[in-house]
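A.,

Following up on our hallway conversation. Structure tokens first:
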């Protein structure tokens, strides 16, 4: 089970604090190649770890924006990780893409991805309202998203996941409903809907700090979440994790294994790994504090003007780090105590419809939660009912 992090985006989205660097196809060919070589070297070096997680054979290429990378480089990395060909036991091979890349690159690129063994594509649509997409600083509009979805289907992708975002203060129920209606017409196999969160390192965090964005009230977010739950249930989607819905049998295998605490190997800058007891992580190309406050991030909002020179310096540094071998280095690790592992199992398991074994929780706390409906029992397992998932953080805090 391998996760590969591609730390490149063509621009930064307003809300995002994922580790990524601004990169574009024309300018950064050398950096992409150096990155690919470094990933292949890391995969070779960590071959034993990869083999040890192969009882569940999945590969997930996420980011950042993996679709900024040209096909030959993706092919090189996939071949290295999968040691040559696509093993017959490979259960799921997902790649994240952005609509604008799919539209620009066309069906040829998608057929190329399928040729690498990709059997699931996750596309960041976020909304089908152009005003919302513009505010998010996405590079695509609704027309691009529609076209990209058609290209994916036309090229033969039969397992597509669509990402949406809700919980924006300027998002009305009507606008969300219109987006959901159209997405349901597309009938993707999987839908993820994440509530907007204000992250400190993001441009949105800056906007909040300067009073340029007011967070949506919880009641508004709850109403939007309820709408998603209702519309997707009615359309036959199974709500199998707080933020994830799938047509029956199309649940994400790789992500489900994270929630079940299956070991995995994370390759690439900033990627995390888990061997069953120890969580470890790679360093990023830039130290996190530099990445978080990098000029490109603020420049996209117009807070900083003339960031080009600094961006070039940043890139020079990133290029040196990758080519000069100071990446990837293991950034650190944390071995979980038995108590921490149990808490993690409760926390991750109760995010899912499957829940957790009853014996995992403190019996008194579990009894109280069962009595007032915060938990329900199915066989010998406990779970949070769907109508309480929106307040699951409070429930989890009480239980752990
Ligand atoms: S949300 Fe935007 S900035 Fe964040 S990883 Fe995706 S494309 Fe890049």
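Then the amino acids I'd put at each of the 400 positions:
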């Amino acid at each position: 089970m391998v996760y590969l992090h591609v730390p490149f985006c063509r621009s930064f989205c307003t809300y995002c604090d994922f580790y990524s660097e601004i990169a574009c196809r024309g300018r950064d060919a050398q950096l992409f190649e150096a990155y690919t070589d470094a990933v292949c070297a890391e995969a070779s070096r960590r071959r034993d770890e990869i083999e040890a997680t192969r009882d569940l054979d999945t590969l997930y290429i996420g980011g950042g924006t993996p679709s900024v990378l040209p096909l030959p480089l993706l092919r090189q990395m996939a071949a290295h990780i999968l040691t040559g060909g696509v093993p017959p036991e490979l259960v799921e091979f997902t790649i994240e893409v952005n609509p604008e890349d799919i539209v620009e690159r066309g069906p040829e690129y998608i057929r190329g991805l399928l040729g690498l063994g990709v059997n699931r594509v996750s596309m960041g649509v976020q909304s089908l309202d152009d005003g919302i997409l513009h505010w998010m600083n996405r590079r695509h509009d609704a027309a691009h998203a529609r076209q990209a979805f058609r290209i994916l289907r036309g090229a033969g992708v039969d397992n597509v996941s669509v990402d949406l975002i809700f919980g924006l203060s300027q998002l009305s129920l009507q606008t969300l409903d219109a987006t959901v209606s159209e997405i349901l017409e597309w009938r993707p196999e999987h839908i993820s809907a994440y509530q907007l969160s204000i992250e400190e390192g993001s441009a949105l965090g800056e906007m909040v700090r300067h009073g340029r964005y007011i967070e949506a009230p919880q009641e508004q977010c709850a109403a939007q979440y309820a709408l998603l739950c209702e519309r997707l249930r009615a359309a036959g989607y199974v709500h199998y994790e707080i933020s994830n819905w799938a047509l029956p049998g199309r649940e994400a295998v790789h992500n489900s294994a994270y929630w079940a605490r299956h070991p995995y190997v994370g390759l690439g800058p900033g990627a995390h790994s888990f061997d069953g007891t120890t969580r470890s992580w790679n360093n990023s190309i830039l130290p996190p504090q530099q990445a978080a406050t990098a000029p490109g991030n603020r420049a996209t909002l117009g807070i900083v003007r003339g960031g080009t020179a600094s961006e070039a310096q940043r890139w020079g540094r990133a290029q040196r780090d990758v080519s000069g071998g100071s990446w990837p280095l293991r950034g650190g690790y944390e071995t979980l105590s038995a108590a921490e592992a149990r808490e993690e199992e409760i926390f991750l398991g109760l995010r899912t419809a499957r829940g957790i074994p009853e014996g995992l929780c403190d019996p008194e706390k579990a009894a109280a939660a069962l009595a007032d409906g915060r938990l329900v029992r199915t066989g010998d397992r406990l779970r949070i009912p769907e109508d309480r998932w929106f307040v699951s953080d409070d429930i989890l805090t009480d239980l752990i």
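Residues 2-259 form a domain with the TIM Barrel fold (CATH 3.20.20.70). Curious whether your intuition agrees with the design.

B.
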